[in-house]
Amino acid sequence: MLKERIRTVNVEGIGQISLKKTNLNRNIRITVRSIQDITVTLPATLSWEAALGFIEKKKAWIQQARDKMLLKTYRIRELLDSREIIERQESREILTRKTRVIADKAGFSYNKLTIRCNRSRWGSCSARNNISLNLFLVLLPEHLQNYVILHELLHTQIKNHGGDFWRMMAALKPDYKKCRAELQDYPPGLIAGMLQR
Predict the structure, then answer these.
(1) Which residues contact 26 (CB under 8 A, 6 or more apart)?
(2) Assuming Cys at both sites, which of 33, 89, 173, 189 could form a disulfide with 37, CB separation 3.0 to 4.6 Å?
(3) Which helix (H) or strand (E) holds 169?
(4) Between the CA of residue 14 and those of 64, 66, 197, what are the distances in Å?
């Protein structure tokens, strides 16, 4: 007989929470993807009752995480309402042009630029200096678009997030810490989910 691996519970004051047992986890992990998508992942050897006890202990934290997500949802809704949703091709052209301009201005070069829908990150840079940008980046305020593009271009020179990377970032964009913090208010997965409704 197969053991039950997934269970949904209703927690007073929070609502539905998905519980998932996995052999990959050694610890209990809570993930709040949206105000209605909360998952608790636990080791396969742990009992459901232990998971419920953990949720009870972490109830305040879960509610706080949901409140933060709700605030982010409102900010994103305001952003989306204030911006014209443009066609994919036009978005690609805008981001391609912007990347070229920022690279030229800052003295960076890259191999290839790919623009696609991504739920987990705004951009990345490969070991071969191929840059990938999230299509939804075009919806963010311009200063955040510029920060993400510059961040990925900087990775063509410095492949990690060590001290040298942040010193060069500070020289190129003195307000990078503010941009970095503000970017946390716009999770790409949340924007993608809101656009698909």
Answers:
(1) 43
(2) 33
(3) helix 163-172
(4) 11, 9, 23
pLDDT in tens, 64-84: 888 887 777 777 777 666 666
pLDDT tens for 38-65 read: 899 999 998 999 989 999 999 989 888 8
For domain 88-195, give the fold: Zincin-like (3.30.2010)
Contact status, residue 13 vs residue 38, Cβ threshold 8 Å: no
Pairwise CA distance, residues 150 & 173, whole Å: 9
Q: How confident is the model at residue 1 (pLDDT cuts 50, 70, 90)?
A: very low
Domain range annotation of the chain = 6-82, 88-195
- Give the long-range contacts of residues 50-53, CB within 8 A, separation 24 or more: 51/19, 52/9
| SS3 call for 17 | strand
What is the value of pTM for the model shown?
0.69
